[in-house]
Design brief:
It contains 21 helices and 25 strands. Strands 13, 14, 15, 16, 17, 18, 19 and 20 form an 8-stranded mixed sheet that branches. The longest helix has 33 residues, at 340-372. It starts with a helix and ends in a 5-residue tail after the last helix. 40% of the residues are buried.
C-alpha cells in the first residue's frame, strides 16, 4: 500500500508541474499553438516562447515585410492573461523565402509548411502558482486566394524551479538560429544611377559559390525584379531596381540571405549607407561548385554542350567560310566517285584535323596559363610570323582555286590508293586550317563560358575545346556517314570549276584581312615583305610548271624563301601605328588604362570601354554597325561619355589581366560605367544601336 501511495503522489506532483497549455487550434488552413522553452519558470526571468504554425500544403504566411501583397502574423493580447501585455517582446523573424505570386510582377516574402516565430516573454517578478498568456493569433494565409484567419491560443506555465521543455526548446532554438546575424562587413548602396548597386565587403561568406538575395524591410526596391550579383576579391555587388523614381531617404535596411552550394542558408541584417560601391566587389560571375560550378559535374557537361553549339555556329562565321568552301568542293568530288568509303574518309580526316587543332590550341592555352598566369583566345593572331604564314597560305590556296597549279595530280597517276591518301591529307589539312582561322571568332557565342573554363583544371579546358571542335566538324561528319544526306550534295559538272575559281576571291580577301592584322602587329614593312613573298610563291609555281628538274629545284628554293623571309621580317617589333594610343586616335577616342578609368569615374563621367583587336571580326562588325554610327556618336557626345579603347591586337599584359579579372576568354568585351559608378556593367559581345543608346536613357 505504501508503494502504491508513493507512486500516486509522484504522479500528482508531476502533473502539477506540467504546463496546462491547450492543444493546437485549427484556424482553417493552419494548426496554431503557443509553445515555450520551459515547462516551469522562475519569477522575474525572461524566456523564449513562440507562435507555432503548421500550414496546409501549398499555403503560406508572411515575413515582417510581406512584399508586394500580404500581412505578417501578429499576436493580439487578451485581458484574460495574468502576464502583462508589455512583457511580450517582438517576434524573432527567421530568414524568409521568396513567394512568387505572378512571375516577374508580384513577389512576396514568407514561409510555407511550418513556421515558428519565437518571442521573448518576461515572467512577472511577483508571479506564483501559474502564469497564463492568452492571445489571438491574427494572420493572412494564402494559396491561390488569401484568407484572413484567427486562432485563440493560450500558454500556461508553472512557477517554481526552472524546468526545460526539451522538445519545444529544441524547436525554438532551431528557428532562432535561422534569424539574421549581424553583418561584420560594410555595406554601401550607390543610388547615383539606375539600377542601384548594393556593394558589400568584409563578410567572409560572400564567396562565388553562393546565391545571394536582398530582402528589404521596406518597399524602396522592386520586389519581383531580379538581383544580378557580381563578385570581387573584396566582396560582392548586387544590382537592385528601385521601386519608383523617388530618391532613397537614409539607409537601405534589410536582410541579406546567402545560400551556399551545400544548402547552408544564412541571413545577415544590414543597413547600407548611401555611397559609392567599394573597390574589388564586382567583376566576376557567380559559380556554384557542386551545383553548377564551372569545371565540375553537370556544369562541365552543360558548358561542353554549349561549346558544341558554338562550334556548329562557327561554320557560319566569315572567318571560316572561305576554308569550308574548299572542304565542300572536296566532298562533292568524293561523293561523285560513288565510293562511300572515300566520302567517310573525308569526313573522318577533316574531323581529325579540327580536333587535333583544337586540342593543340587547348594545350597551348594551358601551357601559356601555367607560364604567365593568364591566357586568351586569339593569341595565334597576336604573333606576326604566324599571321604572315597564314596570309601566304590563304594566298596560295587562292592560286590553287584559280587553277594556277594542281595538288596531287602526279600522285593520282600512280594509283587510286595513293590518290585517296592524298585526299585524306587534304581533308586533314583543311580541318586544321578551319580551326586555326575560326577559333578567334567564337567570342560572341562563348566569351563568358570560355572565360570561366580558362581558369579551370586542364582536363576541363581540353573537354570544352574538343567539344567546340567537334561542333565545327559535325555538319561534314554527318554528310559523310548518313547515306540519305548524300543526296543533298549536288552532282559534279562544269559548274564546279567555275565555283572553284569563284571561291578563290574570298581566300584573297582573307589574305588581305590578315595583312591588315600583320600591319598592326609588325608594321607596314612586314606587310610589304609578305606581299613580296606572295609574289615569290607565284613565281615559283609558274617556274615549276614550265621547267624541268633543275627549274623545279630553283622553284622549290624560291618557294621556301618566299615563306621564310616574310616570317623573319614579321618578327620585328611593330612601328607606332600598332599601339593602343594610335588605334584610339584613329577612332577619335582615348586609350584605355585602369588609372584613366579611375580618373574619369571620380569626375562623375560615364565611361564606355571597347576591348577590341584588328583581327577580331566581331569587334569590327560592332564598330561598323553600332559604335561608329552617327547616332551612337551623337548620343555619347550629348551625354559627355568618355569612350576608351583597349586594343588587344598585340599582346598586352594589362589588358590580358583585365580580361581575366572579368572572366572573358578574349575580345570583344565592352564595359559600361554609368555616371558615378566605380564598377562597370559588362555588355553583350554583340551590340546594337538601341542597346548602347539605351544605356544613356535618364533614370
Amino acid at each position: 500500500m505504501i508503494r502504491i501511495f508513493t507512486s500516486l503522489l509522484a504522479i500528482f506532483f508531476l502533473g502539477a508541474l506540467a504546463p496546462a497549455s491547450a492543444a493546437p487550434v485549427d484556424g482553417g488552413h493552419a494548426r496554431v499553438e503557443l509553445i515555450a522553452e520551459r515547462s516551469s519558470v522562475m519569477p522575474g526571468e525572461t524566456i523564449y516562447a513562440a507562435l507555432k504554425m503548421d500550414l496546409d500544403p501549398d499555403w503560406h504566411v508572411y515575413w515582417r515585410n510581406a512584399g508586394d501583397a500580404g500581412l505578417p502574423p501578429e499576436l493580439i493580447y487578451r485581458e484574460t492573461s495574468n502576464i502583462p501585455g508589455g512583457a511580450i517582446g517582438d517576434f524573432v523573424w527567421p530568414v524568409p523565402h521568396l513567394l512568387p505570386v505572378v512571375e516577374g510582377e508580384i513577389m512576396d516574402y514568407g514561409y510555407s509548411r511550418e513556421v515558428i516565430l519565437p518571442f521573448p516573454l518576461m515572467i512577472p517578478a511577483n508571479a506564483s502558482g501559474t502564469v497564463q498568456l492568452d492571445v489571438v493569433a491574427d494572420y493572412l494565409i494564402c494559396e491561390d486566394i488569401c484568407v484572413p484567419e484567427t486562432a485563440d491560443v493560450s500558454l500556461t506555465l508553472n512557477v517554481g524551479e526552472p524546468i526545460p521543455d526539451t522538445q519545444n526548446g529544441d524547436m525554438i532554438s532551431q528557428w532562432i538560429a535561422q534569424a539574421p546575424l549581424a553583418f561584420v562587413g560594410e555595406a554601401h548602396v550607390d543610388t547615383a544611377a539606375t539600377p542601384w548597386k548594393l556593394s558589400l565587403r568584409g563578410e567572409p561568406g560572400l564567396t562565388r559559390d553562393a546565391d545571394i538575395r536582398f530582402f528589404p524591410f521596406g518597399h524602396e526596391i522592386s520586389h519581383p525584379a531580379a538581383q544580378p550579383v557580381s563578385f570581387g576579391s573584396a566582396g560582392a555587388t548586387l544590382t537592385l531596381t528601385p521601386a519608383g523614381s523617388a530618391p532613397l531617404e537614409g539607409n537601405l535596411d534589410g536582410v541579406l540571405v546567402v545560400e551556399h552550394a551545400d544548402g547552408t542558408r544564412l541571413g545577415y541584417e544590414i543597413s547600407a549607407a548611401q555611397g559609392p560601391t567599394f573597390e574589388n566587389t564586382s567583376g566576376f560571375a557567380a559559380i556554384r561548385s557542386g551545383k553548377g560550378g564551372a569545371g565540375g559535374g553537370s556544369s562541365l557537361l552543360t558548358l561542353a554542350f554549349f561549346a558544341l553549339i558554338g562550334g556548329l555556329i562557327l561554320n557560319l562565321m566569315p572567318c571560316v567560310l572561305p576554308v569550308l568552301s574548299i572542304k565542300a568542293m572536296g566532298m562533292v568530288s568524293a561523293a561523285a566517285s560513288g565510293h562511300a568509303n572515300e566520302l567517310r574518309s573525308h569526313g573522318i580526316w577533316y574531323t581529325a584535323g579540327v580536333l587535333v587543332s583544337f586540342a593543340a590550341l587547348a594545350g597551348v592555352i594551358v601551357a601559356v596559363r601555367a607560364a604567365t598566369g593568364s591566357a586568351t583566345l586569339g593569341f595565334q593572331l597576336q604573333n606576326g610570323p604566324t599571321v604572315a604564314i597564314l596570309a601566304l597560305i590563304m594566298f596560295a590556296i587562292g592560286l590553287w582555286l584559280m587553277g594556277l597549279f594542281e595538288l596531287g595530280t602526279s600522285i593520282q597517276n600512280t594509283g587510286s590508293g595513293l590518290a585517296s591518301r592524298n585526299g585524306a591529307a587534304g581533308a586533314f589539312f583543311t580541318g586544321i586550317l578551319a580551326a586555326v582561322v575560326g577559333a578567334p571568332c567564337v567570342g560572341p557565342f562563348l566569351g563568358v563560358a570560355l572565360g570561366a573554363v580558362l581558369s579551370q583544371p586542364a582536363p576541363a579546358v581540353f573537354i570544352v575545346f574538343l567539344a567546340m571542335g567537334f561542333g565545327l566538324a559535325l555538319p561534314f561528319l554527318l554528310l559523310s556517314f548518313v547515306p540519305g544526306l548524300k543526296r543533298l550534295l549536288p552532282k559534279p559538272g562544269k559548274w564546279m570549276e567555275t565555283l572553284k575559281q569563284f571561291f578563290a576571291f574570298p581566300m584573297f580577301l582573307t589574305a588581305a584581312w590578315l595583312l591588315s592584322v600583320l600591319g598592326a602587329l609588325s608594321g607596314h614593312s612586314a606587310v610589304a615583305w609578305t606581299v613580296a613573298g606572295a609574289t615569290a610563291v607565284t613565281f615559283a609555281i609558274w617556274l615549276a610548271r614550265r621547267g624541268g628538274i633543275p627549274a623545279r629545284a630553283v622553284a622549290a628554293a624560291i618557294l621556301v624563301l618566299g615563306f621564310a623571309y616574310p616570317v623573319l621580317r614579321a618578327n620585328a617589333p611593330a612601328a607606332a601605328e600598332g599601339n593602343s594610343a594610335a588605334y584610339a586616335a584613329k577612332y577619335e577616342t582615348e586609350a584605355w588604362s585602369p588609372e584613366r578609368v579611375s580618373e574619369l569615374t571620380a569626375q562623375g563621367r560615364p565611361v564606355f570601354v571597347d576591348f577590341t583587336a584588328t583581327w577580331c571580326a566581331t569587334c569590327q562588325l560592332n564598330k561598323l554597325s553600332t559604335l561608329k554610327t552617327a547616332a551612337v556618336q551623337e548620343a555619347f557626345a550629348d551625354a559627355n561619355v568618355a569612350f576608351l579603347v583597349a586594343d588587344f591586337t598585340r599582346k598586352d599584359p594589362v589588358i590580358a589581366e583585365e580580361l581575366k579579372r572579368r572572366e572573358r576568354a578574349g575580345v570583344p568585351m565592352y564595359l559600361w560605367y554609368p555616371a558615378g559608378a566605380s564598377e562597370p556593367d559588362i555588355l553583350p559581345e554583340i551590340l546594337s544601336k538601341d542597346l548602347v543608346i539605351g544605356l544613356l536613357a535618364p533614370s
